[in-house]
Design goal:
Distance between the termini: 44 Å
Shape: globular
Oligomer: single chain
Number of strands: 8
Radius of gyration: 22 Å
Strand order of the largest sheet: 5-6-7-8
Number of helices: 11
Keywords: ATP-binding, Nucleotide-binding
Structural class: alpha+beta
InterPro entries: P-loop_NTPase, T2SS/T4SS_dom
Strand content: 5-15%
Largest sheet: 4 strands, antiparallel
Protein name: Bacterial type II secretion system protein E domain-containing protein
Helix content: 40-55%
GO molecular function: ATP binding; ATP hydrolysis activity
Organism: Methanosarcina mazei
Length: 292
């Protein structure tokens, strides 16, 4: 990684770990580091431990299994086992040959969380607990025992951070999965929906609708889009009815979003009136308007 002075036009080499530390000072946004393979991994784990990267800290590394990831991070790259405990989860993406065919597809094959409080004396296989695992017969991820029984430490941590029960957190995560699936399915037909601008706008609309629906629930105000979707008043934010309403509202917006962009491609994204701007303009109004 290198940088150049805009005044003196002189080049200055910057090490990856120096660049990473500089990124940490820029603010509390999420941090994503690809292809971890050197001294920068220690800075990455420092960010995980102190939590100064805001929402999340994510790194990618080559490894065929969660145990292999542990071996590489701890024994090859020199991160102390005590620091590795800052890892919430490891996600493995593998090449799968469905039915033993020549066709190769990418699948998330395993999601495991670090569950042991003391990992220094344990074997790598004893450190992780599966949250989800890939079933080749169904070509999908299935919930692990810890997730099915509501005993996942990671989900529990998320629930405490959100101030909700574990069941509510799981339902909320399932709702987000439905939204991602909808984007992916439509993106197969219209690839521009999978690009950063469209995905970002879809994510922003989810958060804005979530906040506005909760506000309407607290204040008792009525939502014009909720009436269109067949809902009269917003229920409690932890209920299944609320989550279903939220998905329906988002889906209505997404269908309008697709209709406006359909046949016009990515070039329209730059001039499309974002839902975020529209909702911010309506912030002082007791009802929420969705741009059609």
């Amino acid at each position: 990684m290198s940088s150049q002075s805009s005044v003196l036009k002189s080049g200055a080499e910057m090490s990856p770990e120096t660049a990473l530390r500089a990124a940490l000072r820029l603010g509390s946004s999420s941090l994503v580091l690809g292809e971890v393979r050197g001294p920068e991994v220690k800075v990455l784990y420092e960010a995980m431990q102190v939590g100064n990267a805001g929402n999340s800290v994510i790194g990618t590394i080559h490894g065929s299994s969660v145990e292999n990831v542990y071996e590489r991070v701890v024994h090859t790259l020199g991160v102390p086992p005590a620091s590795f405990k800052a890892t919430d989860a490891v996600i493995i993406c593998s090449g799968i040959r469905p039915g033993g065919s020549m066709r190769k597809v990418k699948r998330v094959s395993r999601i495991a969380e670090v569950t042991c409080a003391c990992i220094e004396e344990l074997e790598p296989s004893e450190i992780f607990t599966d949250i989800m695992y890939y079933d080749p017969s169904q070509d999908c991820l299935l919930a692990g025992e810890a997730l099915e029984q509501g005993q996942s430490e990671l989900i529990g941590k998320i629930a405490r951070k959100w101030g909700v029960t574990i069941d509510t957190a799981i339902k909320n995560i399932e709702l987000r999965a439905r939204i991602k699936e909808k984007i992916a399915v439509e993106g197969v037909k219209m690839p521009f929906l999978l690009e950063a601008e469209a995905v970002s706008e879809a994510n922003n609309m989810f958060w804005l609708l979530s906040d506005s629906t909760k506000t309407n629930s607290r204040t008792g105000t009525e939502n014009r889009t909720a009436r269109r979707a067949g809902f009269e008043n917003s229920p409690d934010s932890g209920s299944e009815v609320y989550l279903e309403e939220l998905y329906t509202l988002w889906e209505l917006w997404f269908e309008d979003f697709i209709r406006e962009l359909s046949g016009k491609g990515k070039q329209r994204l730059g001039v499309h009136l974002s839902g975020e701007k529209a909702l911010s303009e309506e912030k002082q109004s007791p009802e929420t308007k969705i741009i059609a």
